From TrEMBL:
Its cofactor is Mg(2+). GO terms for molecular function: ATP binding; nucleoside monophosphate kinase activity. CMP binds at N94. Its EC number is 2.7.4.14. The keyword Transmembrane helix does not apply. This is UMP-CMP kinase. InterPro entries: Adenylat/UMP-CMP_kin (IPR000850), Adenylat_kinase_CS (IPR033690), P-loop_NTPase (IPR027417), UMP_CMP_kinase (IPR006266). One of its GO terms (biological process) is 'de novo' pyrimidine nucleobase biosynthetic process. One of its GO terms (cellular component) is nucleus. It comes from Ladona fulva (Scarce chaser dragonfly). Monomer.
Amino acid sequence: MKNVVFVLGAPGSGKGTQCEKIVHNYGYVHLSAGDLLREERAKPNSKHGELIEDYIRNGKIVPVEITCSLLKDAMEKSGREHFLIDGFPRSDDNLRGWNRAMSNEVNLQFVLYFECPEDVCVGRCLKRGSAGSGRSDDNMESLKKRFKTYVNDTMPIIDHYQSLNLLRKIDANRDADEVFSDVKVVFEAAK
Ligand SMILES: Nc1ncnc2c1ncn2[C@@H]1O[C@H](COP(=O)(O)OP(=O)(O)OP(=O)(O)O)[C@@H](O)[C@H]1O
Ligand SMILES: O=c1ccn([C@@H]2O[C@H](COP(=O)(O)O)[C@@H](O)[C@H]2O)c(=O)[nH]1
Ligand SMILES: [Mg+2]
């Protein structure tokens, strides 16, 4: 049985940064759903490249069949058993699609949630964009749409996991190493 930790939080809350640290300390495989979609978009023969670019630029959530199959393939290819799934599930459609395809194959350990104010997150993404991230959504126009989607579609999923007592909330509005010291407490408790 594969083990999964979902990693959620607003755009720019630090999910990718903290996942890298978790990989080094706890040996999980980091799968960012956004990174997998960007890789798929970059393939010259991708069936979904144009759709993915439109969805990403406009902060919309790509149909779950596409995202879930990229995640499933990456999990299988890794040959490993412990996964951090970063930035997924971010809507009811994502959650239902994942449960349909994966609930018999994976054990959800918990959901790590990075809480961070919108203005701080926006500042981080804009800084990342001006430092040359190359992301087509690190600009103010896309960020407004991304946050709308986050509040309308992803926050209910976070509330859902809270109601199941699976949510592990971390204050992400601090230096990355301070954030990680709280992350470690969560992973140590799960050992
Ligand atoms: N605790 C922190 N303090 C200041 N800057 C941070 C912190 N954590 C991450 N950053 C920076 O903020 C930017 C966003 O971080 P990161 O990519 O980890 O966030 P994310 O949640 O994965 O974002 P997205 O949802 O857009 O993929 C990066 O440039 C990163 O270096
Ligand atoms: O499960 C997912 C994950 C991501 N997307 C799309 O990608 C962008 C960027 O995601 P990041 O997590 O910030 O890298 C996101 O705004 C969505 O458009 C998705 O559709 N489904
Ligand atoms: Mg990220």
